[in-house]
Amino acid sequence: MNRVVIAFLTKDRVELSKQAVKSLLQSDKFDLLWVDGSQTAEGKAFPTEIQMCAGERHRIIVHRNVRGGPDAAVAYALTTMLKGGDYTHVGLVENDVLLHPDWFDPTMALFERGRSEGLEVGMATPRCYEDRILFQRDGYAVLHNGGWGIQVLTREAAILSLAHMRTSLTSENRRLFARLSNLDIGRWWAFRSHDSMLCADWGNDRVLASHGFASLALVPSPVEMIGQEPPLAEQGLKIAGQPVEQLANDEAFATYAARTAAIRRGEQDAGGLGPMLHDPASGAFTYFAHQLEGIGACYEGDWRLEFSQGFGPFAWRAGNIEHELNGQRLTLFDGSPTVTIPLSGPVELLASGGKQGGSLRVEDTHSGYVASPALPPRDLVSLPIPAQVSYRDVRLTALSPGVVFYGVRSREPQPFSSQWWFDWHKLPPV
Q1: Which of 228, 286, 306, 316 is the one with CA 20 to 30 A from 262?
Q2: The pTM is what?
Q3: Distance of alpha carbon 104 from alpha carbon 30, whole angstroms
Q4: In degrees rounded to 5, what are phi and psi of residue 57?
């Protein structure tokens, strides 16, 4: 029997949460975890108001002061829900998603519906945007992008989502789904053939598909998006209120089902390179700040989480150190935040001066190369560390508060640990 927990993700905008929470008070069907990052008094008080009104009828567990941006909230929610060892499925609902009261059972039925047609479903959602459909089927769609907004994941899929949580390139999605279905989503999705960076949730269904798991959505979609600024139409989005028949393709669907099944059996490789970002056009490998532990990096000092939606999405910001002097708390900066990374071959460190601009020091322990460049405000700068054939420690030290470190780019793949994993506990404090 399935055991399900749903995380309701909120931050202020109480007028939206009041509408969205109503369809989530279904304790006979799933547990509710409320993940709140509100900063206003009204926003902080609202979960307690709902708890008191719900009383013993609905068990609502509230986690407060979850900050660091929407992707950090997702990482926190998935990490927390996966601790519940007996949950078979975990879900996410953001507070701008208004669900029909009867959304849950039809959504969960998609897991068995997909299995009956040769798929192993990793994610099911009641929300479907027309341009994010890979195939239209009878009553549902296979998606190439569902988004964090509303989804239910199997336990295995949620673990994969965390382990591969990063920004990505549009070409990664196009390439993977072309390999699986012989179709190029660049013909109809929002980005067409342009190559650009994608937010973390745009890559999640690619991650699942590369491991043989499909993402399914209800069509018609029993969902309304509320509080949208600008409105959906101006964002180029349209909820699938009816089947998108031009995206029905039985032959491509059969190919997709066969190839994802072969991946699950271990007979076919989707061509992925693990959690890191690889751009075949440039040949570059990018390891974002939250992934560097996987190649042996060590952070020391006061680093803070910097939300970087389009590139990361997590970066490390040099923070301030609090000291006590004569009974008073003083905020000072002592230049101590460092990251030491074992690296092979020529590499580039990716950083910025943050809001105010700043400086840092980079050292190559093998060659003795040292540089202390000044960094402009906000702009991401690539700092090349020259090398030929060498495997050595490269150390970055922040020399002023606010400096932001995004990660490393290299010409050759770095030795990435197969034992590495990512969850919310890997992030620095906000």
Answers
A1: 286
A2: 0.94
A3: 9
A4: -65, -35
Per-residue model confidence as pLDDT tens digits over 122-143? 999 999 999 999 999 999 999 9
Using an 8 Å Cβ cutoff, are 430 and 68 in contact? Answer: yes
Residues in the chain: 430
- Alpha-carbon gap, residue 404 to 356, rounded angstroms: 11
Q: What is the pLDDT of residue 330?
A: 62
**CA pair distance 187, 269, nearest whole angstrom:** 25
**Residue 68: left (phi > 0), alpha (psi -120 to 50), or beta?**
left
Predicted confidence (pLDDT) per residue in 239-253, tens digit = 999 999 999 999 999
CA-to-CA distance for 82 and 156, rounded, in angstroms?
10
Residues 270, 208: contact at Cβ < 8 Å? no
Please tell me whether residue 42 adopts helix, strand or coil conformation: helix
Query: All domains of the chain, ordered by start, with CATH?
Result: 4-275 (3.90.550.10), 278-426 (2.60.120.260)
Query: Quick check: 7 and 77 in contact, CB under 8 A?
Result: yes
Taking the C-alpha atoms of residue 288 and residue 427, their distance in angstroms, rounded to an integer, is 12
